[in-house]
Amino acid sequence: MHHDNLQRWQHTHAFGQDLKRPGEARTIIVIAITAVMMVVEITAGIVFGSMALLADGLHMASHAVALSINAFAYVYARRNAHNTKFSFGTGKVNALGGYSGAVLLALFALLMAAESAGRFVFPVTIALNQAIFVAVIGLIVNGASVFILGHRHEEDAHGHHPHDHDHAHHHHDHNLRAAYLHVLADALTSLLAIFALLTAKYAGLVWMDPLMGIVGAFLVARWSLGLLRTTSAVLLDEQGPETIRTGIRDAIEVDDNRITDLHLWSIGPNIYGAIISVVAHDPQAPDYYKTLIPPDLGLVHVTVEVHPCIHRDPVPARQATSGTHP
To answer: Are 288 and 274 in contact (CB under 8 A)?
Structure first.
């Protein structure tokens, strides 16, 4: 068969990953802002003796690295979108970037808790006024970063707004979500630092400074674990959302068609692959079953195998018509 005749049955596996995402430019902007503020806070934390401020600066340092991983994931996924080495495209690079960022976040939380605990035993004199000033600047910068990366107000890759009724079965851009959680965590630790320093200044409770370091570490750990769960589900090919699986079954299981095997997994942000086994008394071509699936489910790579049902189980006439039991 001539190669040109095969092209109608062939398709690209880029699935839109070759397009530049809005989150990419915003992430790079935030990296630059975070890196500058990171240097200021770490220096101020060391000079002024504030654990809360130093923790905030170290927090931002880890996030500058994590955000760089996120930016790399965007660029790598885009540049390799047409690379045939990736069976289903580069969509999972996004989840891998989010997962890597979450691991860094978890490690930082442990470091932050350990250092804060040490400050209870060996307290350090704090230059409160200067530390408060720097912490306020940090909060303003982090607030600006949260605003820039405010992905919750963005439409997803299919043009659905987060409040749309069918958005429940769409995942956010995990890479952008990781970056967003990083800067949100930064804003929180800046807020905690300000609270701790004000308490130490006006109430004399110097131990509030390391205590806020531990509280911040706990909250950061919770965020990172949540992101690890969602991204690892993608990386480990866990079954896709129940709503999509139900939609596939409802669409195909009409007449005597029955789905005997269904694999649904994420191959990128908001896009899924599916392998479906169908048994029918009167089997049709695989394309027929593909056309039954609603286009708004986010399926971009569907494989259908069809098997004829050759066994029937006729019910004996006497048993079917009589009301007696054997």
So the answer is: no
Contact 211, 236 (CB under 8 A): no
Residue with tokens 């690379």: 83
C-alpha–C-alpha distance, residues 224 and 222, integer Å: 6
Q: Check residue 237 and give left, alpha or beta (phi > 0: left; psi -120 to 50: alpha).
A: left
Among 14-23, 179-188, 275-284, name the one with the lowest average pLDDT. Answer: 14-23
Evaluate whether residue 157 is within a structural domain.
Answer: yes
Q: In what order do the strands lie in the sheet with 299-308?
A: 258-268, 271-280, 299-308
229 and 300 share one domain: no
Q: In whole angstroms, what is the distance from residue 318 CA to residue 129 CA?
A: 94
Residue 20: pLDDT above 70? no
DSSP state of 282: S
Phi/psi-derived region of residue 298, left when phi > 0, alpha when psi is between -120 and 50, beta in every other case:
left
Question: Which tens digit of pLDDT belongs to each residue from 120-133?
Answer: 888 777 888 888 89
* Alpha carbons within 13 A on the beta-carbon side of 187: 17
E strands, the chain, in order: 258-268, 271-280, 299-308
Number of domains present in the structure of the chain: 2
Q: Which domain holds residue 272?
A: 242-308
Q: What pTM did the predictor assign?
A: 0.67
Q: Could you tell me which of 26, 27, 62 has the C-alpha nearest to residue 41? A: 62
Q: Is 277 found in the same domain as 134?
A: no
Highest mean pLDDT among 15-29, 61-75, 296-310: 296-310
* pLDDT tens, residue by residue, 194-233: 888 899 888 888 888 888 878 878 877 887 888 899 889 9
